[in-house]
């Protein structure tokens, strides 16, 4: 069984995916971490994120390994764990540049299609481009203000700046962020995490 949870930045995708996967007893997979991993490598190796050929060369030289773990996904590059370096301001600013290239997206999607068995997968285009055959699909949204409030609880940053950055990333990610026609849309603005998880599980089990 494959369950896809797509949605805009900070709408709750990874938190919901982790909880739903635990309830179903299956792994969860965070596709955004592969894009974040490429962005991290770009920054480290001083590669231009707008140069698709250079990005493809980079992932050939430093292949990234996405490891689904119950407590959270990990990204490794050879023997190096990059997981702790993926949610920085710099990576947030770079990642949408990396994610706009079709051949780089094909490379990411190929990694994701290697995942076997049942799983919950979250991102932007999991229910559309990558797993159109999924058994259940969800698309999470929330107002930019609410999403910014949730982010500042995790990181000590200015709420206005966080909201502006989220809106900008939504714009840059718009091309790959359309909900699947058969996805259940959930506006999480006025829902608790428990409510969202309960809604998703109810629909999956129906
Ligand atoms: N419905 C919700 N109500 C309250 N807080 C939530 C809700 N959904 C997510 N959160 C919190 O918002 C933050 C961002 O959620 P996260 O799962 O990281 O979003 P995404 O994966 O979409 O970026 C997390 O701290 C999470 O606990
Ligand atoms: N399936 C996906 C997942 C992420 N992404 C890109 O990767 C970035 C980071 O995704 P993420 O899911 O880790 O980010 P948040 O939504 O958690 O902020 C997004 O802003 C997109 O640019 C994508 O294009 N397609």
TrEMBL record:
Its EC number is 2.7.4.25. Signal peptide: none annotated. The keyword rRNA-binding does not apply. ATP binds at residues 7-15. It is found in: Cytoplasm. InterPro entries: Cytidylate_kin (IPR003136), Cytidylate_kinase_dom (IPR011994), P-loop_NTPase (IPR027417). It holds the Pfam family Cytidylate_kin. GO terms for cellular component: cytoplasm. Keywords: ATP-binding, Cytoplasm, Kinase, Nucleotide-binding, Transferase. GO terms for molecular function: ATP binding; CMP kinase activity; dCMP kinase activity. Gene3D superfamilies: P-loop containing nucleotide triphosphate hydrolases. One of its GO terms (biological process) is pyrimidine nucleotide metabolic process. Residues 3-205 form the Cytidylate kinase domain. The keyword DNA-binding does not apply. It catalyses: CMP + ATP = CDP + ADP; dCMP + ATP = dCDP + ADP. It is an enzyme of class 2 (transferase). Belongs to the cytidylate kinase family. Type 1 subfamily. This is Cytidylate kinase. It comes from Deinococcus yavapaiensis KR-236.
């Amino acid at each position: 069984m494959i369950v896809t949870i797509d949605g805009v930045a900070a709408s709750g995708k990874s938190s919901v995916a982790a909880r739903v996967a635990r309830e179903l007893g299956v792994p969860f997979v965070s596709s955004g971490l592969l894009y974040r991993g490429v962005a991290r490598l770009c920054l480290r190796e001083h590669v231009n994120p707008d140069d698709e050929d250079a990005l493809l060369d980079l992932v050939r030289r430093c292949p990234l390994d996405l490891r689904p773990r119950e407590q959270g996904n990990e990204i490794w590059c050879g023997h190096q764990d990059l997981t702790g370096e993926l949610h920085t301001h710099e990576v947030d600013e770079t990642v949408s540049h990396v994610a706009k290239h079709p051949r780089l997206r094909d490379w990411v999607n190929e990694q994701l299609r290697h995942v076997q068995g049942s799983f919950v997968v979250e991102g932007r285009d999991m229910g559309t481009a990558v797993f159109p055959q999924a058994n259940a699909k969800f698309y999470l949204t929330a107002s930019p203000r609410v999403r910014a409030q949730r982010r500042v609880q995790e990181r000590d940053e200015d709420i206005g700046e966080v909201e502006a950055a989220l809106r900008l990333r939504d714009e840059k990610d718009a091309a790959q962020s359309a909900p699947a026609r058969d996805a259940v849309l959930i506006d999480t603005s006025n829902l608790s995490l428990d409510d969202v998880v309960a809604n998703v599980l109810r629909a999956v089990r129906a």
